[in-house]
Design brief:
This protein is an all-alpha fold and 148 residues long. 54% of the residues lie in helices and 0% in strands. It has helices at 12-19, 34-45, 52-65, 85-89, 91-97, 100-113, 122-126, 133-147.
Amino acid sequence: MKPLGGGLLERADLCFGFLQQYPDVMPIPGIRAKKEADEILGLYVTPKPLSKADLNAMENIRSVLGEKFCHRCEYCMPCEQGVQIPSVLIFQAAAKRLTREGVMAWLGKAMESVAECIECGECEQKCPYNLPIADLLKENLALYREHA
């Protein structure tokens, strides 16, 4: 599920090339357009093994994402205070893909919800990736404000 990291991973060829190494794995991607479905289907109709350059690109992505990569699984939800955690944590990916106005319109209310965080830690206890969610909320809000 979410083989493209909830939209954070941009290289479908790398994601699906990696998954093709595991014959018993069936990816379940979210698809918004026929073009995306065609691209993924093409990667399976004409598979190619990962090259050394592909592996280097994957390692670069891994190092950039680091240990603070929200997979958007939403296990941290619901937040009792109403903080829209997954939406706040997707900010950086959204800022790369959308206009400033688009980001503001889409994520504005989510970013406002960060003010309600009381740092209770409940979301961090539920996160299967042990993310420092309270810190990530603050970081993403600061980046959002700079972006605005």
